[in-house]
Amino acid sequence: MSRDFRGEVAAITGAASGMGRALALELARRGCELALSDVDAAGLEETTRLVAAEAPQLRCTSTQVDVADRAVVEAWAAQVMVDHGRVNLLFNNAGVALGAPLANVRPEDFHWVFGINFWGVVHGTQAFLPHLQASARESGVRGHVINTSSLFGLLAMPANGAYNATKFAVRGYTEALRMELDLTGTPVSATCVHPGGVRTAIARSARMDASTEALVGMPVEQARAHFDRLLATTSAERAAREILRGVQRNARRVLVGPDAKLLDLLVRLLGSAYQPVLVWFARRSVRAQRPQASTQPPPSRSAR
Ligand SMILES: NC(=O)c1ccc[n+]([C@@H]2O[C@H](COP(=O)([O-])OP(=O)(O)OC[C@H]3O[C@@H](n4cnc5c(N)ncnc54)[C@H](O)[C@@H]3O)[C@@H](O)[C@H]2O)c1
């Protein structure tokens, strides 16, 4: 029988917004206890309030955690065991985006995006794995690590190179982790999640360098709005349900949304030849945007 999450405990990073919040609410509806974390205390409080409205009896704890800080993540994992007595699911979901041509990515921005997107996943996995194993042995319910990569962990995209590097790294890390867990017969599994465009705060909170305009053909504020309006085609709620379905069938890879499924297929069919196809599309869209973009005031050096 497939697991229904009732009576399990899920730890979720990045639970103050977007897919993290939607996962919390969907799991609450299914009777799964929650240990929520995020760096954003106000957003976390709002998620906790929404969970309490959805499932008033449910045990839900929340902790302000910066996933880039290993010691803080380790302390949170230990606290989850004290508060809940067990942990069955870990969603390493927290993430940030960075838009900039690779030639212009500042070292501090590279460190920032890797600290959260890649090291956050490593910190969470290493801190929780012993607890997931112990809980699985005690309860007989398989533990599960769910790491969020991206469609951009399957294909690269101009102006997203630093983000691509973090999400390709999450994919390699999670696929190797899954095989190691298989080989050692550990009662814990791992799934890598690759969402396409999902309607969340990700584009609004992204760091974007003004020089991105040369690659995408529009000023950064217009690019953020363009993502929200046209590219983010899947709701966070639907994404959460697709992710949970993937965990239920113990999938190695979960593609979220029709865009992720289509582009994954394209990359498989074309191999590295997807790159000239993307360059062709990018040139075309830059040309199409130009007259519109030239009516905007000149961009400042950094639009952070
Ligand atoms: N929205 C999309 O289209 C999309 C597509 C592919 C992948 N993703 C990935 O999905 C995950 C969830 O993002 P989302 O779209 O829900 O975005 P979101 O911005 O709505 O949520 C991300 C959350 O991560 C938190 N966060 C940021 N830095 C943190 C830190 N240092 N420590 C702890 N928490 C931190 C934010 O406060 C926020 O609550 C991310 O890993 C993102 O890269 C999103």
TrEMBL record:
Name of the molecule in the record: NADP-dependent 3-hydroxy acid dehydrogenase YdfG
InterPro entries tied to this protein: NAD(P)-bd_dom_sf, Sc_DH/Rdtase_CS, SDR_fam
Top-level taxon: Bacteria
Listed GO MF terms: oxidoreductase activity
Keywords recorded for this protein, A-Z: Oxidoreductase
Family affiliation: Belongs to the short-chain dehydrogenases/reductases (SDR) family.
